[in-house]
Design goal:
With 100 residues, this protein is mainly β. The protein has 1 helix and 7 strands.
Length: 100
């Protein structure tokens, strides 16, 4: 078994079948999620975990917002160069990654 500490309360882990990376959405303030107030919304964050089984997995913040755009992220999934972020009670966000 492998455990990893992250700065958010992750929800709905998604595994990229091509890379094995783990994608998850969450919120860094669980109380704001539980006691939802649209005037003081919970933020949103998406993280990507690469090489989870290695000694030093890499955790990257892919999306962070204070709730002004997206409130209470609960899931994130990727397909090719696209990211879809879903929430518990707000809306979804569709993103396209830039090519380098």
């Amino acid at each position: 078994m492998k455990s990893l500490t992250v700065e958010i309360g992750p929800d709905n882990l998604e595994v990229d079948p091509k890379t094995g990376d783990i994608w998850t959405g969450g919120c860094w303030n669980a109380w704001k999620m539980l006691l939802y107030n649209p005037e003081n919304p919970p933020g949103s964050e998406v993280i990507r975990i690469e090489n989870i089984l290695s000694k030093d997995p890499k955790v990257t913040e892919v999306y962070v917002n204070n709730g002004t755009v997206l409130q209470g992220t609960s899931v994130a999934t990727v397909y090719k160069d696209r990211l879809v972020i879903g929430t518990i009670f707000h809306k979804a966000l569709y993103c396209e990654f830039g090519r380098s």
